[in-house]
Write a structure and sequence with these properties.
five-stranded antiparallel beta sheet; 66 strands; 1 helix; Immunoglobulin-like; Methylamine Dehydrogenase, Chain H; Thrombin, subunit H; single chain; mainly beta
Length: about 750
């Protein structure tokens, strides 16, 4: 049984090469929010928010499918497995249909409903019902035929009054008729009628708002939004009452032997004699905050989908034992912030709006990932910290972690155990006071450790907005009312500390504020040509690159401060836009884009996340956009990028989006101190591999020469950071032949050298 407190399990990774970059992508998805389930003779399928998994009931093998494998990052609303065609069909809230051929794993995207000339909010897919090779697709506008053999759409039925759109929640075939449970009655028509596109062929046989309908045995059962369950027999022309559920049904379905009705708190299972053989209540299962979403039965096993706790199974005969069979991953898909070291990743799920409003407050836990797998610490263990928005790992002690709460203060975690919640009673942190002295609201966000082990934190909407927690436990505050136009209206974003110990603070009202305690001086870069040249004073993120430039991401574009040392020498620092040539026209890089995060890799490239345009990788000076990843050309599940961080040792870039976290092995790692750990991968490079050869573990500015076995030079470059790529061509002209190639590596000063070999098999 999956424990609801702390648990470890290994995460199964799925990798694929992506055509745009030949990099290896991985998915780190949550499978806890079950939207729908479907059964096969020896497998159960479960659809989570935007991913799919299945468990083979014979072998117990669990298989996951997510955006890395070709799924959409959009929200799934329905799921159906066709045993006749061995295909799994996913329906989405935006009208997309994906068909997975289980025989070969291929995925077909069907966009016909998305392309219909209908309001976008009417395209949600609610249910699939198969009859004689046709899937009848229940949508928020009507019913669509989908041929499972040809993968083509047939007719569309608008069955509302006078042919209007109508929400169809479920359909069933019974006694020669197709029945539709809609938000305006139960409607039916003869299934053999070839003119069902004519709304006049459909008859309303029951009024009301109906959420489900299914045939079972010799009868038809339907439920309305009040939990009233009705029955229609083959010899009757009208429904009669069967039972009254204490809550509305969220799912109703029938297997060969059982009728299953699911409410938020209970599951009711009836046999073919309509005897209630099992009732499962949420209070029987040792999970917290449990809510049911759906359920099905395979053999003697009941599979229960939940809203936040994944897929749970139990025996139909047993009322005691429950097992959670959900693939382990992060607690939620919407990771708001993360931090990565060479050994560990921490993530938090709290958030705030674009205007820094944390309400409604989030009550989520915190997650950790390392080589052992995922550890999810639930909200019940985080000492009441709500809306946690940032993570800071002590670089001198990775077992000491701090999570910023944008309402409750600062949570300290030691050895994976939450220990202290710093707030207004036990630290230098302060609550905002403009709503009254009795209301406690402590908004901690940006955090960063300096070289001396001091933890610097920002405290929004108060006078003393900059705080520091010293290694000995002492707190110190710095007043910012002289530098901020209105401290009680200001919120802080990300913070970074440069090589000189200057703290750079993102603010919502005053651009970037720099502070150095050596001279106790504050300075700021804000909007206006004479006050810093930012496009807007609302700054979200800052990053210092390897050339000591400060990259500034605002809600209206990007700016760069040429040298952070200008804090000491210039009274008014000025940031500049990056001007690029596009179609022979001078343009500003990322003009007007909402920049959410900037991360610098080992080769000084910049990974830039945006609020709705995906992820950009630009060259060290920003003049070249190397990649622009979106949901359309990469496994990104969303174009809303929340946060980015990079494992400096492996080069793996982690991207937290609003719909899940993915990563890929970058080509840039931090430079090494020597060449003792230099290595080549893959080695050998086999015919089926389509990517590049990487030489890693390099010094910065190392010279790399590659020759064939006869000593002929085929490639030469100088490293920026710790890794270089070779596309296995002779200076970009043609692919080199099979054989052994020598790699000669030397430091910039020529003192240290290394020789490696790589075998290429064509």
């Amino acid at each position: 049984m999956k424990k609801s407190v702390l648990y470890f399990l290994l995460l199964l990774f799925v990798q694929m090469g992506f055509a745009q970059s030949d990099l290896s992508w991985q998915g780190y998805f949550s499978y806890n929010e079950i939207k729908d389930v479907s059964e096969a003779p020896s497998a159960v399928f479960a659809a989570s928010e935007n991913a799919l998994f299945s468990k083979n009931t014979t072998t117990n093998l669990i298989k996951t499918t997510n955006t890395i494998d070709g799924l959409s990052g959009q929200t799934i609303s329905s799921l159906y497995y066709s045993a006749t065609f061995n295909k799994t069909i996913l329906g989405y809230e935006n009208g997309l249909i994906l068909v997975i051929n289980q025989a070969d794993g291929t995925i077909l995207n069907v966009v016909d409903i998305i392309n219909k000339q209908l309001p976008a909010n009417l395209k949600k897919i609610n249910h699939f019902m198969e009859f004689e090779g046709i899937a009848y697709v229940s949508c928020d506008f009507g019913i669509v035929q989908f041929n499972l053999a040809t993968m083509l759409f047939g007719d569309t039925y608008f069955i509302g009054d006078n042919g209007a759109e109508i929400i169809v929640n479920q359909t069933a075939v019974f006694n020669g008729f197709i029945y539709a449970a809609t938000n305006n009655g139960i409607r039916r028509a003869a299934i053999a009628n070839e003119n069902l596109i004519d709304f006049n062929q459909w008859t309303t046989i029951a009024a009301g708002n109906w959420s489900g309908i299914t045939a079972f045995g010799t009868d038809l059962y339907a439920t309305d939004t009040f939990g009233n369950v009705q029955k229609l027999s083959a010899t009757s022309s009208s429904f009669t009452g069967f039972t009254q559920l204490p809550q509305r049904s969220v799912d109703m379905r029938a297997t060969t032997d059982y009728l299953i009705m699911t409410t938020l708190n209970s599951i009711y299972i009836y046999n073919s004699q309509m005897v209630l053989v099992r009732q499962i209540n949420t209070n029987q299962i040792p999970e917290t905050n449990l809510g049911f979403s759906c359920a099905t039965i395979i053999g003697d096993s009941v599979f229960i989908g939940t809203k936040e706790n994944g897929l749970i199974t139990t025996s139909l005969a047993s009322a005691v034992t429950f097992e959670n069979i959900t693939p382990i991953g992060p607690a939620r898909n919407n990771i708001f912030s993360l931090q990565v070291t060479p050994n560990v990743l921490w993530a938090v799920y709290g958030d705030y709006t674009a205007g820094y409003n944390p309400y409604p407050l989030d009550s989520y836990g915190i997650s950790k990932f390392n080589e052992k797998g995922w550890l999810n610490i639930p909200y019940e263990k985080v000492l009441g910290a709500q809306s946690m928005t940032r993570i800071a790992i002590n670089p001198s002690n990775e077992n000491e972690v701090y999570a910023s709460s944008f309402f409750s203060g600062l949570l300290k975690i030691e050895n994976d155990e939450p220990k202290i919640l710093y707030n207004q009673t036990n630290s230098g942190l302060e609550s905002l006071t403009f709503v009254g002295p009795d209301y406690i609201d402590i908004r901690i966000n940006g955090t960063a450790f300096d070289k001396s082990g001091n933890l610097w934190v920002t405290n929004s909407r108060i006078k003393n907005g900059l705080k520091v927690l010293k290694p000995g436990g002492q707190w110190q505050s710095y007043a910012m009312d002289a530098i901020l136009a209105s401290p009680i209206d200001n919120s802080f974003g990300a913070m970074v500390i440069d090589k000189n110990g200057t703290k750079w603070l993102s603010t919502s009202e005053d651009g970037v504020v720099g502070f150095n305690e050596t001279n106790n001086k504050f300075k700021k870069i804000t909007s206006g040509p004479d006050t810093g040249n930012l496009p807007i004073s609302n700054v979200r993120t800052v990053a210092v690159d390897t050339r000591n430039q400060l990259w500034i991401g605002t809600t209206k574009g990007l700016r760069v401060l040429p040298n952070v040392s200008s804090f000491q020498s210039e009274e008014q620092m000025t940031a500049n836009p990056i001007i690029i040539l596009e179609d022979n026209l001078a343009q500003e890089l990322l003009f007007e884009q909402f920049i959410t995060d900037i991360a610098v890799d080992g080769a000084n490239n910049k990974w830039i996340g945006t609020g709705d345009s995906g992820l950009f990788l630009v060259s060290p000076n920003g003049q070249e956009t190397k990649y622009h990843f979106t949901i359309n050309n990469s496994p990104l599940p969303s174009n809303v990028i929340n946060d980015i961080d990079i494992n400096s040792t492996t080069g793996e870039v982690f991207i937290a989006t609003a719909k899940g976290m993915v990563s890929f092995k970058g080509v840039s790692t931090a430079a090494n101190d020597d060449l003792s750990n230099a290595y080549v991968y893959p080695n050998p490079m086999r015919p089926e591999y389509q990517g590049t050869v990487k030489i890693a573990g390099l010094l910065d500015r190392a010279n790399v020469k590659i020759t064939d076995i006869g000593g002929n030079l085929v490639y030469e470059t100088t490293s920026e950071g710790g890794t270089i790529e070779w596309d296995t061509t002779a200076f970009g002209k043609y692919k080199v032949a099979s054989g052994v190639y020598m790699i000669f590596i030397s430091a910039q000063d020529g003192v240290e050298t290394k020789v490696k070999k790589v075998m290429i098999i064509r």
